[in-house]
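Fig. S4 source data, part A: sequence.
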Amino acid sequence: MCNGPPPAGPLPGTVSGRQGLEGLRARVRLLGGTLRAGPRDGGFEVVARLPHASAPAPVQPVQSESARRHVQARREVRRRLLAALIVPPSIMAGLLGVVGTVYLYEWQTSVLDPADYEQLRPGQARAEIATVLPQRQRGPHVSAPEPPGLTCEYYGTGRSITQFRLDAYRLCSAGDRLVSKDLLTDDSDRGEVPT
């Protein structure tokens, strides 16, 4: 249906059901049709398309505002619970990965080649032995206290980290001279003879 342009002056009062286009659109939708309404050629056009032998469309339940907020609150609780279960373990795994990588790097770069260790002799100058020493040292070994008055350095023995052993070469110096060299093993603190 299309009306022409409205007449000049005030429009005559008409009885309205106060439903307007929205009410008409809802009725057409219930029958499975579509409604298009808008200005055309200076007038106003309303076009409804209804399927032949149509059945009423299923009515969608209207959700109240409180029900909608309840659903949103439940989704938010689920999201936060999921974040609480996933985020901390993910952060912990990342930190363990970083710490493990740093530890492996320091482990590998603090190994003194056993052949180089065998060539070291007490009395050698520090500058002379520095060429064969690794770029990093390890911490003091737990099995033997440091000799008093000496400065000691600790290096790995080349044993694999997968053997779970903390064997170390200890080189002790007085001033700029090597005074002693020792192989400290995990067996040392149990009274066993190192192999």
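Fig. S4 source data, part B ends here. Residues 61-108 form one domain.
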